[in-house]
Specification:
8 strands, about 260 residues, binds flavin-adenine dinucleotide
């Protein structure tokens, strides 16, 4: 594998730093290439601005259009272009972060905002002129997997747990971003209760992470429905006969066949 590992944690001696080191070592030991974007260590700028896309600050800044233009004319800033080149070289993307306010740390969100712009990551059409998305796109043929530590215990994140189910909390990243871009998204590697980890817990977590990483080529992806796979109508709404009566985020899983409520 050629892995791009994106890490968002400010402290290399953290649990996340430890797990990142263990995981990357395990991959390299098996002969895999690993390129790392350690966002804090790089001093990554997460803020979308005109300069990043070579846009004239005197002109009104329409973000998506300016990004697409800058990409086409080779005017992107070196940091954005550098990340895109890493993505292009990779066949596997690992996104590792602590869950902060039920989502990505801002530095990581800003990595997606700036790097995954129109013309590069979305707004693309296939050979027949069809819009690409959800199962096809610039990451087609690549695999992606999130590695997430969480303070809350596992049961808070169960189907009826107070924090909500992990599949739904990670839906914007896994479905709306990675799958939308065409990647096969593997089930996440989750470490709940991380704030109370003992060194033994951390060792067990590292073992689980190593196993999951080395199994990436053989792991079944999350079975999201493809945009152009026949389950959606021309407005990209689920056809009435697909999981009829089912609503909510789970309805976008092939495994959802229920006829009432959410999957
Ligand atoms: P660290 O703080 O570095 O370590 C966690 C524990 O592991 C420590 O006790 C440490 O001693 C121990 N440890 C054991 N072995 C090792 C080792 N080898 N190396 C390093 N440490 C080790 N949680 C939620 O569930 N939901 C939220 O929405 C949420 N929002 C948050 C928002 C913010 C802004 C913050 C700061 C935290 C939030 N949390 C939330 C908690 C957060 O997810 C956890 O604090 C985080 O996942 C723990 O990972 P870490 O790498 O920062 O751990």
């Amino acid at each position: 594998m050629n892995v791009l590992w994106i890490l968002a944690h400010p402290e290399p001696r953290s649990l996340n730093g430890f797990l990142a080191g263990e995981g990357q070592r395990a991959l390299r030991a098996e002969g895999h290439e690993v390129e790392v974007s350690d966002l804090y260590a790089m001093g990554w700028n997460p803020v979308v601005d005109a300069a990043g896309y070579g846009h004239d600050p005197a002109e009104r800044f329409q973000v998506a259009a300016a990004a697409k233009r800058g990409y086409g004319s080779g005017a992107l800033s070196a940091d954005i272009r550098g990340e895109q080149e890493k993505i292009d070289r990779a066949d596997t993307i690992v996104v590792q972060f602590p869950l902060w306010w039920f989502g990505l740390p801002a530095i990581l969100k800003g990595w997606f905002d700036r790097v995954w712009h129109q013309g590069y990551a979305y707004g693309l059409r296939g050979p027949g002129g069809e819009w690409l998305g959800y199962g096809d796109g610039f990451l087609a043929g690549k695999r992606a997997m999130a590695v997430v530590t969480m303070g809350g215990p596992a049961w808070f994140y169960g189907e009826r747990g107070i924090h909500g189910s992990v599949g739904e909390l990670l839906f914007p990243l896994q479905h709306g971003t990675l799958f939308y871009a065409g990647a096969e998204v593997l089930p996440p590697v989750l470490f709940p209760g991380a704030d109370r980890f003992t060194p033994e817990d951390a060792g067990n977590a590292a073992k689980e992470l190593r196993e999951r990483l080395l199994a990436i080529p053989d792991t079944e992806p999350i079975p999201y429905r493809k945009q152009n796979g026949g389950d959606y109508d021309e407005r990209f709404v689920l056809r009435p006969d697909v999981a009829p009566g089912s609503t909510g985020l789970g309805a976008h899983l092939i495994t959802c066949t229920t006829t009432r409520g959410s999957c």
